[in-house]
Amino acid sequence: MTKNVNLWVDAELTWIFDDAWMRCVGQTDPVSLRGCDCWGGLDLSNVGDVTAFVLLFHENDRFQLLPFFWIPEDKTLEKVKKENINYDKWVAEGYVTVTPGNVVDYDFVKADILRVTAGYNLKSISYDRWNAS
Asked: Where's the Terminase large subunit-like endonuclease domain (predicted)?
């Protein structure tokens, strides 16, 4: 209801319990998934939000995710100062990539997506239609 008709709801039951979520902690070596089938999900942002692209694999009897994130370079320090979000640390650690300028550079993101998916058998990409012209 929230995602499709913008109707916020309160759920009495948790969808994924914390202990189940924590059993999923681990790292996937992207090289180990080379040549494997995968499906992508893309959520574009514009100015002050994060653009996200996630690859989903079902290999070795488990689901594995490879996430990628981008934020405009000029907004990184602003987010750190105003919102106390650790983007600078995440960029330095390689979890988030900055795009040049003060808005997300879609050509930059597209080139990154083409680069990271080149070694996988990408079946399709689903995306949020907002701003996905």
From this structure: 2-132
Q: How many other C-beta atoms lie within 10 A of the C-beta of residue 88? A: 15
- 132 contacts 72 by C-beta, under 8 angstroms: no
Provide DSSP, 15-74. Answer: SS-HHHHHTT-----GGGGTT-EEEEEEE---SSS-EEEEEEEEETTEEEEEEEEEEEHH
- Bridge partner list, 68: 53
Helices (H), 23-123: 73-83, 87-92, 106-117
pLDDT digit string, tens, across residues 52-108: 999 999 987 888 999 999 998 888 887 777 888 888 899 999 999 999 888 888 999
Rounded Cα distance between 77 and 73, Å, is 8
